[in-house]
Amino acid sequence: MMRRFYQLEQAIREAFLRDAFPEYEDPQLRRIARAVHSLPRFHRQLFCLVRYENWSYDEIAARFDISVRRVEIEMGRTFFMLSQSLDRQKRKGW
């Protein structure tokens, strides 16, 4: 049920971001930027902490007061949502 909500929420955000990031000439970079920005806030924070700020799962678990296993699960969901977003955008010709 919750996964369906996240997918719907993300698809709506993507629609608002369709014309965003014109500074990226490469369409794939634009899709990636839209996909990251369309993530729900918590998942976007996780992604940014891991990928851009090089935080470990242990550090993230301590910051959010959750288990390392929960961080692993949520990162898996994050990557799933990103791949779904990229696929959806490509199908729509964005």
Automatic annotation (TrEMBL):
The organism's place on the tree of life at top rank: Bacteria
SUPFAM superfamilies for the chain: Sigma3 and sigma4 domains of RNA polymerase sigma factors
Domain RNA polymerase sigma factor 70 region 4 type: 30-77
Listed Pfam families: Sigma70_r4_2
Entry protein name: RNA polymerase sigma factor 70 region 4 type 2 domain-containing protein
